[in-house]
Design brief:
The protein has 407 residues and is an alpha+beta fold. The chain has 17 helices and nine strands.
Length: 407
């Protein structure tokens, strides 16, 4: 590494601030990540929060849910306002809570997402993917025509949402999750609040119908949530339904689209996967999750004084967890900026860890595996063409559009 490179990395690490992101960061954050990993593994921001970027630090935080709280009441109150729909949603959902709410909701859901239950979904998923592939236009948008349609149908089926009612789900999801960005514009805030209201109204009606005509709780997650004992309050039920529908949709959409983009950029790895799809299927999906993590940022708050890299953080410190950087940490992953579809071991943190490990990680892996392998089997010579703009978001890494020619 040259002195010029070291100086450039030092400047990147020194100037980086989540509240004032450098130009081009959303498109390519990895130069900043490399600088933070090397020179500022504990990065302090002017607002008093800090960012951790190394794998071992994130792993420590994820494992210790008592010291590092997921609750966001104090953080989100000034961001959204205590009376805002976004505040009500995000402070009630599973992911931004500690026990006892987190424990109650997770316990209710875990029985519906067992390995056996997920394996039973695969034939239906294969049929869905094959239908989408058979109907693809010659020049599709791989986000709108493929990647986003798969999780909407899978999650819609899990909740037994009528097909004619699924169309707004993606737009609501994007608006609500977009409001989690480090910097929130008034327009994005208004869209997020409106989406929570519309989504809540829709779900209250759906819950009322499900109470009148319950489904099978073994396969219908909504019926399982409605009938749970001890049950969830009305707001807890609605807001956690929104969270599950959003989380199950956005990360899987990004996993599939990011993978197809990465395979286009790494033709040798694409040829390798086409030649041995069964042998590489599992490691390939994990490598896509590591290489372009759908979720790039997480957050915790210290409940007591803690130390990292020789510095003490007082209780109450807000801690940003840079998942995208940790999954490129050279202390953990050899040649981390290389896509290696046979990489082992690969203990990435794309699904977080500890008590907050993503509940749907097995389902997301299956969706990614089926979608990517069957797409390659049908269109091995696909090519990306035209502009492929990223979403512009830094918490969730994905594409607005991914235009392609199928060949």
């Amino acid at each position: 590494m040259t002195d010029t490179t070291v100086d450039a990395d030092a400047a990147l690490a020194e100037s980086f601030d989540l509240a004032a992101l450098p130009e081009g960061f959303a498109e390519d954050p990895f130069p900043v990540y490399r600088a933070l990993l090397a020179l500022a593994p504990l990065k302090r921001f002017p607002d008093g929060s800090v960012m951790l970027s190394r794998w071992e630090d994130l792993d420590r935080v994820y494992r210790d849910a008592r010291t590092f709280s997921s609750a966001k009441f104090e953080e989100f109150r000034p961001k959204y306002g205590a009376d805002a729909p976004l505040y009500a949603h995000h402070t009630t959902s599973l992911v931004f809570n500690d026990p006892p709410l987190h424990t109650r909701v997770r316990k209710i859901l875990v029985g519906a997402l067992t390995p056996r239950a997920i394996a039973a979904m695969e034939p239906q998923l294969v049929a869905l993917v094959d239908r989408l592939l058979a109907g693809m236009p010659e020049r599709p948008d791989l986000v709108a025509d493929f990647a986003s349609r798969i999780p909407i149908e899978v999650i819609g089926n899990l909740f037994d949402i009528p097909h004619e009612e699924r169309e707004p789900l993606r737009d609501w999801s994007l608006a609500i999750l977009g409001a989690l960005e480090p910097v929130l514009s008034p327009e994005a805030e208004a869209r997020g609040n409106a989406a929570v209201v519309a989504f809540s109204d829709h779900l209250r009606d759906l819950v009322a119908r499900r109470r009148r005509a319950p489904g099978d709780p073994a396969t219908d997650v909504l019926t399982r949530l409605v009938q749970a004992e001890p049950g969830l309050t009305g707001p807890e039920l609605i807001q956690n339904c929104i969270f599950i529908l959003n989380a199950g949709h956005e990360t899987t959409t990004n996993l599939i689209a990011n993978a197809l983009h990465s395979l286009w950029e790494w033709p040798e790895e694409r040829a390798r996967l086409i030649a041995d799809p069964e042998g590489l299927a599992e490691t390939a999906v994990d490598e896509f999750l590591r290489f372009q993590s759908p979720n790039q940022l997480g957050n915790r708050a210290a409940t007591e004084a803690v130390s990292f890299h020789g510095e003490t953080l007082p209780a109450g410190t807000r801690i940003h967890l840079c998942i995208g950087a940790a999954n490129r940490d050279p202390r953990r992953f050899e040649d981390p900026d290389r896509l290696d579809l046979a990489r082992r071991p690969n203990r990435h943190l794309a699904f977080a860890g500890g008590p907050h490990t993503c509940l749907g990680f097995t389902l997301a892996r299956m969706e990614g595996r089926v979608a990517i392998l069957r797409f390659l089997a049908r269109f091995p010579d696909y090519a990306l063409e035209g502009p492929a703009p990223r979403t512009g978001r830094v918490r969730f890494r994905g594409f607005d559009r991914l235009p392609a020619r199928l060949g």
